[in-house]
Write a structure and sequence with these properties.
Rossmann fold; three-stranded parallel beta sheet; six-stranded parallel beta sheet; globular
Amino acid sequence: MSGDFGKILVTGSYGQIGSELTPRLRELYGKENVIASGRKVPSVDRGPFEILDVNNIKRLDEVVVEHDVEVIIHLAALLSASGEKNPNLAWHVNIDGLYNVLEVAKNRKLKRVFNPSSIAVFGPETPRDKTPQETVMKPRTMYGVTKVTGELLGDYYNHKWGVDVRGIRFPGIISNVAPPGGGTTDYAVEIFYEAIQNGQYTCFLRADSTLPMMYMPDCLKGVVQLLETDLSRLKHHTDFNMSAISFSPAELVVEIRRHMPEFKVEYKPDFRQAIADSWPKSIDDSIARKEWGWKPDYDLKAMVGDMLKVLGSRLRKTE
């Protein structure tokens, strides 16, 4: 299955997901077949890399032609909290950049485009428990607005021009490699750094703010699964609900304290609380399970244990 892809271009390859997805793709499909890209030269890279701003369609097209790219994994984006601080830039990057990717994919007849969506597409009117695949989408953040627009734009290119655009509505992603990247769910990454390094944490959400989350290994697994699924199996394309774990800060703290009983937390909600309150508590991902066999590997206990082990080992080495 993987041999059918040809060359893969990853935009935003050193963001939260890209920093781990890019090396994983190189493991699966060959180092020279995965071209990383971004606006700055990385300090370390172990494969092909191109300077690329997705808002420069001419440069994007040049990179695709030069490397004979057949698949674009489009990860360049501003996240929720960052997007609220600069909504104009969020629209420019998240929508104008996606439009350029889709135009190049259409004109160059690429095999596939992956454009991630988010639980941010939902809003206060959306059912918050077991949020269904098809439901009300009236987000209250610019990030959410761009993700709804991106889903619709991808579907439009699919139906009108046959561009194979695929996307997942990611929950909060928890990584032991990438640092927090400006998202509302980033407390669930920050908390591990603070627990290990300082033994205490001030959380920017309420203790009872339950949100859908996912450990990065499951995220990578889901992206690869969807990429490799035969098109004939898919009735949906750009908007798959995907879920793994739902928990609140208080529940996460309880699990961390099983390993670190002295860990202290206080709660000081900020502007991100309103964003979290507009998002689902849990997600119904039965469509993804049915159409491409999605199933997570990590629950809360397994995720916390692995995060503390891997992150703790790395942080102690750098001290």
